[in-house]
Amino acid sequence: MIRTLRPKAELLSRPFVEKIIDEAVLLLGRHGVFVENAEARGLFKEAGMPTDETSLKVLINRKLIEDSLEATPLAVRLYDRAGEKEYVVGHDEVHFDPGSAAVKILDHATQQERPPLTADLVRLARLTETCENLHFQSTALIASDVPEIIADSYRLFIGLQFCSKPIVTGLFRTAGFRPMFEMLAAVRGGAEELRRKPLAIFDACPSPPLKWSDLTAQSLIDCARAGIPSELISMGLTGATSPVTLAGTLVQHVAENLAGLVICQLARRGAPVIFGGSPAGFDMRKGTTPMGAIETMMIDMAYAQIGKYLKLPTHAYMGLSDAKINDSQAGLETGMGAVLAALAGINVVSGAGMMDFESTQSLEKLLIDNEICGMAYRLIGGIAQRDEPLALRLFEGLGPESQFLTLPHTRKWYRVEHIFPELADRDTYEAWVGQGRTSMAERAHDRLERILGETSPNLVESALQKELQAIMRNDARDSGTDALPGLPIG
Amino acid sequence: MESTDRLLAAMTAAVVEGDRAAAEALAAQALADSLDLHEVIERGFIPGIQKVGELWESGEYFLPELISGAECMKAAMAVLKPAFAAALTEAFRRGKVVIGTIEGDIHDIGKNLVASMLSANGFDVLDLGADVKPARFIEAAEGTGANLICLSALLTTTMLNQRRLIELLKERGLRGRFKVLVGGAPVSRKWAADIGADGYGENALAAVKLAVELGPKRRLA
Predict the structure, then answer these.
(1) DSSP label of B202
(2) Which residue of A has its CA nearest to B185?
(3) What is the enclosing helix (H) or strand (E) of A376?
């Protein structure tokens, strides 16, 4: 039997990959990186790197970068809430998750964006639980009915209770780490268990060009020490905060990520790191950051290819759209992104449900995107040799009346070789009219209502729930607030 | 007279073409030739930045042309500044603005664009940089006698801090003294209204228009 080819797409030749890395390393050695965080600067200083306490600039030499790369694990393993299901983040494994930290939600009833509420966050977590092609959840919404000071920990608090999948999250404040770490450790039953079986990824975004802020560098340090994987999210905007050429932006992207990776390894050698990003091809007409631009996707695919060359797990914000409603643009940009990400073998692909430049989540789109991700998975499953010979025997005794519908061979393979979408319309015109001429978004909304109405949430057990609530309450109190919204169960 | 007209036209062209070196040289020549600086600004450079604005609005110019036009304007003004007579200063000056990216956010591209356009359009701009605490905005605005406070944020997470500044102004009984304008990628008109800001500019040019509208009325010499 012939081995199935895993379909792949690469945009850069090997010499081009090496040239970009080389320039990034030169950039870090000559120009350096701004590190606002004093502890991180201290780590660089201890490692013998020139640091300037006035300009906050740190120069990083090639040897330290190579040494840090050497120390970084090739793959990260994440485990679900129960600690049973394992997900390998590395190699060419692809895991989709909802795009994170939206400040708005598209309300299906009004077709308008509005501030999200805790109830929306709960619905999103519950829906994510049911989306088979979204392997991870994320803290995808910032609930507006929660005090801003605890917005980061509160999202995790909800996600952990209502969805059993590993979670992609991040900090809005340095003090957010402690309660969030405590929640994760509570689910695992201890800090060492959490280190052994990571449950969450923390995103950390450098600020282009070449800056690591106080908060994000601290996040890298704290996560490295706790064994929590950090996802490095460089986000250059071509021609605005990074060079206008795609290759030029890649140099900066790689340099920013490598600087972050070194911080992680200096904080704790062997710390899990994911080479990610959220760059965009800046739109010079509108001054916006289109995630659905083909150039954005090209940069994503290319830095992921570079990450793979460096033997690192990879991530990208792909499979999302800048559309404001669930229209053709929403589908085309999301579809292209998800398919290209899968072909590029990117390990964590964040984007499902997201629209309007990473600012708005749509629960209907989340379900549509789950279906898109299913198609992307089918694509990278490739074309397999199922039989030997492939088909010759099926034609034995072939006559003019022959068909394949009743062959045992058909029945054996049709559900394996083909996937069946729930939401895409494959009805005849008459059947579609008969069912009310619905759009995909309308069908998604019906399905959403059905899922939420008919399934019960996969909640944590009550002892753990109490523990999480206590951590959340303490965090709120320490942050000077006690205004927690009531928890909608169901 | 004719040569003055040619010079003024060249000033306009320099800004329209984003030729910073030419704009500076022309400003220096205006000083050397002892030209009427009021005329230099009003008929030379300002029509340039106005034209740039028009080309932007008609969709012909994109951001790089818009911003390099503004930078030319600023460079020319910097050359002329030492020679400004009080009357001229008044002719061009529109008001004082304190601008910065809000605490927690160290992204400053959007804020820089707005600051650049504001100063190209005659505002006195105090740029506090990025990751600026709400209290610092207020102290700077009080210290300089600014009328406008402009707040930027790129991250959805940090735009939440914009609200804190407005609350702090209220706490200190200063809300009525300053107009607060907000902007940034995740910010919307709705958000501005929700937090009680005085205005929202969706891009740098909109911010300038808003600032002109809300700022002190220009006094012509």
Answers:
(1) S
(2) A288
(3) helix A363-381
Strand partners, A112: A107
pLDDT for B80-92, tens place per residue? 877 765 544 554 5
The one-letter amino acid code at B80 reads L
**Which residues in chain B have their CB less than 8 angstroms from residue A103's CB?**
156, 159, 186
Contact A284 B64 (CB under 8 A): yes
User: B63, A240: Cβ pair inside 8 Å?
Assistant: yes
d(C-alpha A342, C-alpha A94), whole Å = 6
Q: Under DSSP, is residue A36 helix (H, G, I), strand (E, B) or coil?
A: coil
**pLDDT at residue A334 in the model:** 98
Q: How far is CA A99 from the centre of its chain?
A: 6
Q: Residue A169 contacts by C-beta under 8 Å, 6 or more apart in sequence?
A: A100, A138, A139, A152, A155, A156, A159, A180, A200, A201, A202, A203
CB contact under 8 A, B156 and A208: no
**3-state SS, residue A285:** coil
From A217-231, A270-284, A364-378, A475-489, the region with the lowest mean pLDDT: A475-489
Chain A hits for B207, CB-CB cut-off 8 Å, are none
**Strand (E) or helix (H) holding B149:** strand B148-152
Q: Please tell me the distance in Å from B161's CA to the nearest CA on chain A.
A: 8
Instruction: State residue B113's pLDDT score.
Output: 77
Mean pLDDT of B122-141: 89
In contact, A161 and A459? CB cutoff 8 Å: yes
**Strand partners of residue A200:** A167
pLDDT digits (tens, 9 = 90+) for A370-388: 999 999 999 999 999 999 9
What is the average pLDDT score of chain A? 96
Rg (CA), chain B: 18
Distance CA A103, CA B19 (A): 40
Nearest Cα neighbor of A35 from A283, A277, A214 is A214
Give the pTM.
0.86
SS3 A280: strand
A104–chain B nearest CA distance, Å? 9
CB B204 within 8 A of CB B120: no
Sheet of strand A348-352: strand arrangement: A95-98, A348-352, A315-317
Kindly report the nearest CA distance between residue B29 and chain A, in angstroms. Answer: 33
Predicted pLDDT at B220: 39
List of chain B residues whose C-beta atoms are within 8 Å of the C-beta of residue A173? 104
Quote the minimal CA–CA distance from A218 to chain B in Å.
13
For the question of an ipTM over 0.90, the answer is no
Chain B residue closest in CA terms to A35 = B106
Q: How far apart are CA A91 and CA A77, in angstroms?
A: 12
DSSP string, A389-455: SSSGGGGTT--TT--STT-HHHHHHHHHH----SSS--S-HHHHHHTT---HHHHHHHHHHHHHHHS
B111 touches chain A (CB under 8 A): no
**Is B156 within 8 Å of A359 when comparing Cβ atoms?**
yes
